[in-house]
Amino acid sequence: MPVRRVALGLLLGLAASGVLQAQGDPAVLGAAIRAEGEGRLVEAFQSYRLALAAEPGSAPALLGLQRVAGRLGWTDSLRPHVARAIEAAPTLQSIREVEFQVATTGGSDSVQAAARRWIAALPTSPTPYRRWSFWLAQRGMMSEAERVLVEGQERLGDWVLAPDLAAILVATGDWVGAARQWSIAVSTNGALLPAAVTGLEQAPEASRDPVLEGVLAENPAPPAQWLAADLLVRWRRPAEGWPLLDAALPEDRVSAIALLRRFAALAAQAGTPQGSRVRGYALERVAELSWGLDADRARLLAAQAFAEAGDLPAAERLLNRLAAGTEPRSPEAAAAMAAFIGLLADAGLVDQAEDRFREWLPRMSGGDVAQLRIQLAWARVLRGELDRAERLLEGASTVGADAVAGWVALYRGELAEARARFRAAGPYGEERWEATRRATLLVLLERVEAERLPELGSGLLAALRGDTARAVRELERVAGRLPPHGGRADVLILAAELAVRYGELARAEPLLLQAVAADSGGAAAPTAEYNLAALYVELGLEQEATRRLERIILTYPESAVVPQARRLLDLMRGAIPKS
Amino acid sequence: MRRRDFLAALGALVLPRHAPAESPAAGSGTRALVERRPRAAGSLLIPMDDRQTNHLKAYGVTYRSLKRGGRAEWLLNYRGGSFLLERDPVALRESALGGVQAEEISEAEVVDVRGVVAANNMDAVPLEKAPRVAVYVPPDVAPWDDAVRMVLEYAGIDYEEVWDPEVLSGRLRQYEWLHLHHEDFTGQYSKFFLTYSGTGWLNDMVRLNTQTARSLGHGNVAALKKAVARSIERYVEDGGFLFAMCTATETLEIALAAEGVDVAAQYADGTPMAPDASDRLRWDGTFAFQGARLELSPAVASFSDIDGHQVNNPARRQPLGAFKLFNFSAKIDPVATMLVQCHRDVIPDFYGLTSSFTRRRLKPGVTILADEEGAPWVKYIHGEHGAGTWTFLGGHDPEDPQHQIGDPPTDLSLHPSSPGYRLILNNVLFPAARKRELRT
Do A139 and B97 touch (CB under 8 A)? Predict the structure, then answer.
């Protein structure tokens, strides 16, 4: 466009005429920066040029000129300024960087020439190799990028460009080569460990063992072993990782603890008993390297990890040491024992748990005592020992204890007392899911008018204890004795839900059909029909399911299950994702 | 389209000049319009204001009513852009099943409604035919969701999938409406090639596109996509309706402007992008944009300065705000009014690989349907091209403002009244509002 060329020529002419005025004027650079910040780009361009005319090797002025030229689309005009800047300051990294960037507008040859000049001027700098290889990689020229970095390594030493080379090798699928590079890099600079793990953890399943061999090749330094341990734990193989880390722990206590804590946290993410056990090992080692409260805490966490892994002897060993090593009356010792008692109860070792509970009762906090009473009472209920559960709750006045007492009454068939206890507990106490379960049962109990119904309690207890067949049988028998509008449908629905939960789908259908027939116009009918539709979906009977769901929506438009019915219809139609 | 032109098209539809209304030569839709008058029994009003309980499925109820041969009217600006249907037991049942609020109103109440429409900035647009919808979608599964297919599925609106072979074989002529979503018509795999190198989905995508390009006689994927873009442009030129979102908007335009110019990175077609590509683009054949500057780095997942938000360019990324729908005159400009029917005027913005359109890159004559006040970008635009029209909406998923690769698809049953998704569905029913010549 001739007009624009003329305009640009005039502009440059004007700028050149001001050079002499700018000699020795440091305010020119400040004016350029201000003009650039305010978006007066042409003015900024002129001022940067003036500043460079006064001081050709000024990196701030050259970088400013580069920024503004880029925004104006005048990058080509940078070349003479870059040439003068290099002449004035041939070994300034930032000026070489600008030269390289300007060269990238001219294709591979000009990029190579600029990179070679940069290398010649700064022979000990890895930056030119890095920039050059990155430029090549961006254009998909991976083997050329790799060659540039290898050349840099040959001149500057293996470790200098190892992370860059590893990234290129990953991009080309050479995971083993990348592993060797990261091994070199972390062995020289331990701070690169997180980057190395991030760089290698995405290795495909089939490449993982070769990657480990690459990391651990030829007398690996401890950081390479830490890298291998970290990778193994991230690949859900914590038991293989632990010996590597344990054997290579650094002498420095603080560094060792940091590595162990990091490993323990990663092992926990595995969510497996093996992961928990390894977490226990790592935390026990942390406890050995720590003292005072820190050691106690680490030991307690290690005990919990061992308990989660099912290794109760290891957990007990640590807790005994904790209790012995601290002041017996200290809150830490009591808290540790409370945690251990809870673990014993959860593991089904209720007698041992209750013995320790009674032994430590005077020393434990009120909160721990209340919590353990509930936990132990539930453990007794699960064994069918309702009397012993009640004894544990004697004297307890918490909402949670009230709720458990309600369940015990229900399992005995004392419906009136269960209703009263559940109402007293309300929506509080324990966890939300438990409150929801209680509210659901309370609705059923309100419909069943009887004061006592031991068969219902016995059926529900059988369900709790996992004897589903007996539970379903007893609940069906109880339902048969209830009036149609007096809870029969609700108990049948409950029986069917149990049957479905334990995979007895064929058993559930007749129960639900009975429920619909028992209370066709009542509140339980839409729930029964919805459960029936869900059952048909499970059985692949989509037409039947659709018929039921449409019936619910059209017949009971005010029912609370209508939104669920619509959602299930949408899912069946594929109108919403199955997530 | 101005009201004069629109009504002329509508008049041609009601009283065809070349065939009497009863003639078999006239389309079934025409006969239906002439013969079916609102029955004395009244109508079914589907309100689209805040009383509506499922705005998205309301479009499906209306669409399926049209598909059954029923008549409907779109009451622009009346209670959020309501629909007036013949009283029809099937529509009533579908409304109940879908949770769509529908009101049975008498003939006298219909007259009242018409009075309100006549006296205000409102209009009643007859809808006469369920449009045939095609969605351009590759046969593989990309690791991101597709807002239009999701909303069509949710609303229960039929569509067919087309891809490069169907587009290049001329099958688009069978459809009134074509949707594009996240496709990259520059052939650079959304510029994720370097960032996601080695991932299975990208390998599959590259393999599929490369094989397709070869099988259709194109040297590389970039060349194939340019040919597809040209076919889409001709489809609109010949009278088709195009709706595009996200990257499809920007890359379709770049592909159309890049005839004879290499705009693809080396990894895509074996040669680097032409250094002067931006200067050589020719925008005279594009729909919406002009003068854009291309992003030169193949490692930055951004295509040009058309997009205002630059979500994948950390140095230039702009925060999300909210966009405001314009209020058009329903009686003078019914087309634009249809496209902005919504129960919300201001809608929270959402990112996409292309989130918005820079104002300075818009061609003169482009109708801005929604913008962010004070921002240098707009969100939703529309225009005519030959005998057809196009509509572009920036962003990827209106209910997932920062949708990431690998994120689960949005569950629309949790957003049944999504105002952003309503804009997509406005585009589905928009072609129903005027008679289309069947091209088959």
Answer: no
